[in-house]
């Protein structure tokens, strides 16, 4: 290997030869003094190409995360290698490093059928589906993809039958939408159920997703509800936006969460007294869509789509990855999960002053601190307050009756909340990707499909990194408060008014 200075008449030269049996080089000849001018050597960075820099920083993008930004790459090349590069070269180098570390986006679509087929082979019970469209030239292009791991399919059998659906936009080279179906385990933690990649949030894509979801979620009538959309969340948001009266959002939230119909109408009458227009709006929406007392199915404690909204931040980094790029169960020391045990302790503290009278067998009359009486049946596991019936967790009245009868309160909890069922949900594991090219695909199978990426067009301008907030929504700061923009007056420096409406004397 010979290295020469780029100067025409410079004597700087290095001659090295590779040693046998290793990757080291031995310098044979070295002329270390330059005889050229500084102007001849000022452009020595021309060999720092985007491909070379991309290979140098590839390891920084092969793990989880976005990797360094172009500005960070420029600083890295300047401080560590004394080579200044432009922002555009740093951007191109970053793209090359991402492609080298995470895989080529176009090739990922070709590998997708083999990857899905290998998933089904290694984990029987995994549900996959791919929908393609012919572009007219004989090429099958990607349209939809559905995936539910076998561990999720088996674990859902031990879940409470409430599924929350949501979608989020993909931000890679080929745009689309990631649809997710999530459940909530007995410890109130997120349980991912199924994923789908579609071309957008449209009726056709949603219909296809739900048709495939039926292969994972049984379509029974026992826990069916007329709506699995985030009705309660949208309802409160619309009320805050459209109706400006104070305390409306609080009253609507209380009316939605009470268990008895009589308690619902107590709060609904207060809503009418505050704003009759808001009451008419809620009536038109339909009580069964946003209230727990009128629900046709078992909502348990799930009243909003926060389960799915919490899953989206966990997937925010993966949304930019190519299409081919488990949390263990929490240890439970008692008979029930930690969250349910926490609720039992809380209800016990409230019920210590209740008056309990035995009626017959397993029936008890419980009088609370407000002198309101409720009937509890410990054998049938119900209470006239209906909270025990709907949540399957002993309410304050059931806790008082159980303590009076010397029964364990946690023995009254529904089977879905027990430790054994919690462990059974996570009896299967989701293994790392591994190699999915070890076996040649059989003809006329999913693995033999020659898949091409979809035809998509990016909208103009730089893509947004976060969702545009709807009217009435505000960002939360790290401290927990609302991140509203504080408007200050340019005349006096005060808040809550502007220069035109300022009344402060100068």
Descriptive report:
The protein has 506 residues and is an alpha+beta fold. It has helices at 38-41, 50-56, 70-81, 87-102, 105-122, 150-156, 203-213, 231-242, 248-257, 261-274, 276-285, 306-314, 338-351, 387-391, 396-404, 419-425, and strands spanning 2-4, 13-18, 25-31, 127-134, 140-148, 164-170, 176-184, 190-198, 355-360, 363-367, 373-377, 382-383, 451-452. 33% of the residues lie in helices and 15% in strands. The strands form 3 sheets. Strands 4, 5, 6, 7, 8 and 13 form a 6-stranded mixed beta sheet that branches. It has a 4-stranded antiparallel beta sheet with strand order 9-10-11-12. A 3-stranded antiparallel beta sheet has the order 1-2-3, with no helix packed on it. Among the domains are: 1-42, no CATH class; 231-320, no CATH class; 338-425, no CATH class; 474-506, no CATH class. Helix 8 (231-242) packs antiparallel against helix 9 (248-257). Strand 11 (373-377) and strand 12 form a beta hairpin. It is built from 16 helices and 13 strands.
Cα distance spanning the termini: 79 Å
Number of helices: 16
Order of secondary-structure elements = EEEHHHHHEEHEEEHHHHHHHEEEEHHHE
Which whole number gives the mean pLDDT? 77
Largest sheet: 6 strands, mixed
**Helix share, percent:** 25-40%
Tell me how many strands there are: 13
Low-confidence stretches: 222-232, 323-332, 478-482
